[in-house]
Design a protein that fits this description.
Number of helices: 4
Shape: elongated
Low-confidence stretches: none
Structural class: mainly alpha
Length: 92
């Protein structure tokens, strides 16, 4: 699992449409599907149900969504803190 995969999951969950998520992320729909399938395999869960043209979260996907947001937020906060620490160290 990586941040790009989580961003794909979140975009599809929020857009409820694969093509709109692809535009939002500037990726091909195929690449997004590949990342989502990889995440589903890693988690051992089905995250979406498809009702073309809509894509809806499964129960497992709905349960995972807040965690995906939290993981990305935590990652961004850690990255900012590390950059701040190293910026202060370079000043000294």
């Amino acid at each position: 699992m990586n941040t790009q995969t989580l961003q794909c999951f979140i975009a599809v969950a929020e857009e409820k449409n694969l093509d709109q998520a692809a535009v939002r992320l500037a990726l091909s729909p195929e690449k997004i599907v590949q990342r989502i399938r990889s995440l589903e395999q890693e988690l051992g869960l089905v995250l979406f149900t498809e009702y073309p043209p809509r894509v809806l979260l499964s129960a497992a996907g709905a349960a995972f969504l807040p965690h995906a947001h939290g993981i990305l937020l935590e990652f961004e906060q850690a990255k900012q803190e590390i950059h701040r620490i190293y910026a202060l160290a370079e000043v000294r």
